[in-house]
Write a structure and sequence with these properties.
By secondary structure, the chain is mostly helical. Helix content is 85%, strand content 0%.
Length: 41
């Protein structure tokens, strides 16, 4: 697995976390996790 795939996998994980936080109405963390996703992707 290349380094770029590693970062894309982490970005996908962060996005899934953001979606879970959105469902649970933890909006501050949604913003944070989306920011993390953008930085990694």
């Amino acid at each position: 697995m290349g380094l770029h795939n590693y970062w894309l996998d982490l970005a996908e994980y962060d996005l899934e976390t953001a979606e879970a936080m959105f469902v649970s109405e933890r909006y501050l963390y949604v913003g944070f996790m989306c920011h993390q996703t953008i930085e990694k992707a």
